[in-house]
Amino acid sequence: MTKKYSLYLAIFSCLLFLQCKPVKETVQLPEIIDKPIVFDETRKQLSLEYLRDRYGMEKETPTIIPRIIVLHWTVIPTLEEAFEAFNPPTLPNWRPDIKDVSGLNVSSQFMVDRDGSIYRLLPETTMARHVIGLNHCAIGIENVGGTEAMPLTEAQLKSNIELVNYLADKYAIDYLIGHYEYTYFENHPLWLEKDKGYRTQKTDPGEDFMGKVRRATKNLNFAPIPKKPMTP
Ligand SMILES: [Zn+2]
Predict the structure, then answer these.
(1) 125-137 pLDDT, tens per residue?
(2) In this structure, which residues have their CB less than 5 angstroms from ion ligand 1?
(3) What is the Å distance from ligand 1's center to 202 Cα?
């Protein structure tokens, strides 16, 4: 065997070996910056109360089993202002004597800045108040901006797609929805809100943005959103 021939053989064997190695599809991990909001005893107790009073869930810790990803926009124009809005444990102007309204402040597990930087405000499986009826199973991604003067950016779109891929790889996620679609779940087994009068009208994060994220994550095969319940 000539030297040259053995070299070819060696290269060929290497290539063959590489070819045969099982190729595991790896999800590219997005860069996530931890920037925790206050999660003190007050927030913990209010979260447990929320799960109990609104959903009938008695729990020791306010954790969720993620099944839905909900995309939002903040309308608030900067990351710092949006962070400050979510940071306090209680809603501004909350009066503890009004018992039928939860004092738990709104928040979300993730926030994406205008430049696409991804911040994690809470552990992924801690409950955040961001979507009526579904907080016990929903991970929220807020996007800074969203007004006509400040539409969501290409960088935010890219980061949302990366985050959705990352979360779908990590948890058994069935649905990806825009906040404006949440009422479609009213008759769904995952819908647990007890108060039929507690609804808000939402438009975030816009149909255009939602459509783009859906098209880019088609391969994840999320279930179609339920049909709109018949209005009486
Ligand atoms: Zn929203």
Answers:
(1) 999 999 999 999 9
(2) 72, 179, 204
(3) 7
User: For residue 19, what pLDDT is reported?
Assistant: 54
Helix, strand, coil percent values for the chain (each to nearest 5): 35, 15, 55
Give residue for tokens 């990590």.
170
* Angle subtended at Cα 169 by Cα 193 and Cα 212, rounded to the nearest 5 degrees: 75
DSSP string, 74-134: --SSSHHHHHHHHSSSB-TT--TT-TTS--BPP--SEEE-TT--EEE-S-TTB----STTT
Longest dimension (CA), the chain: 91
The two structure tokens encoding residue 70: 């909900």
Tens digits of residue pLDDT in 32-78: 999 999 999 999 999 999 999 999 999 999 999 999 999 999 999 99
Q: In the chain, count H helices and then E strands.
A: 5, 6
Report how far ligand 1's centroid is from the alpha carbon of 113 (Å).
15
* Backbone region of residue 22 per phi and psi (left: phi > 0; alpha: psi in -120 to 50; beta: other values): beta
